[in-house]
Amino acid sequence: MKRTGAMVAMLATVLAGVAVGAAPAAAAGSRAPAVDSRAPAVEWTACPKYSDDVIKDNARGHDLAAFRKQLERRRCGTVTVPLDYRYPTGRQLRVAVTKYAATGKRLGVLAVNPGGPGGSGVLLPADVALGQARELAARYDLIGFDPRGIGVPEPRSSGN
Q1: Do residues 96 and 76 lie in contact, with contact meaning Cβ atoms separated by under 8 Å?
Q2: How much is the pLDDT for 36?
Q3: Distance of CA 22 to the CA centre of its chain
């Protein structure tokens, strides 16, 4: 459970870097060793197509045409992160991410998390954009991701 929490916390840092760019690890004149702590780059790819059943399961009662319209505005990709952050150069994990750009005057970026265990978050921004928090989609880029080794992450992780 600790490893899962650390992974989600670090992924939030990665997603923040994805949205706003990367910063150098140490300030000029700092005695800290120079470590490249920039967020990994997103490898943007074509978004997957979903069956009607998958869309119905994720639309959570929203109009299916409106949900599909939300899916049209997303960007999809993966970030490669360490499976275990105690070993940053060890085994790596690819995590799926989605970005739904703000539809109005942009204020910033919000990562949405489906909670869990076991829920994919790549389509969650579409649900947020159609729900009671739709004002967030107008003002913020919404970032979704697949936590806990479900969905697109490779290799699959048991979360231990």
Answers
A1: yes
A2: 55
A3: 16
Identify the bridge partners of residue 76 per DSSP, sorted by sequence position.
Answer: 45, 98
Q: Distance between CA atoms of 64 and 40, rounded to whole angstroms?
A: 34
What interhelical angle do 64-72 and 52-59 show, nearest 10?
100
CA distances from 147 to 12, 55, 57 (A): 10, 19, 18
Across the range 108-131, mean pLDDT stands at 88
* Strand runs labelled E in the chain: 43-45, 74-82, 92-100, 108-111, 140-145
Identify any residues that bridge with 92 across adjacent strands, giving them in sequence order: 82
Q: Please confirm whether the linkage preceding 40 is cis (ω < 30° from 0).
A: no
Model pTM?
A: 0.70
Helix (H, G, I), strand (E, B) or coil at 94: strand
- Distance separating alpha carbons of residues 28 and 8, to the nearest angstrom: 30
69: confidence class by pLDDT, cuts 50, 70, 90: very high
d(CA 151, CA 58): 13
pLDDT at 29: 52
Length of the chain: 160
Q: How confident is the model at residue 148 (pLDDT cuts 50, 70, 90)?
A: low
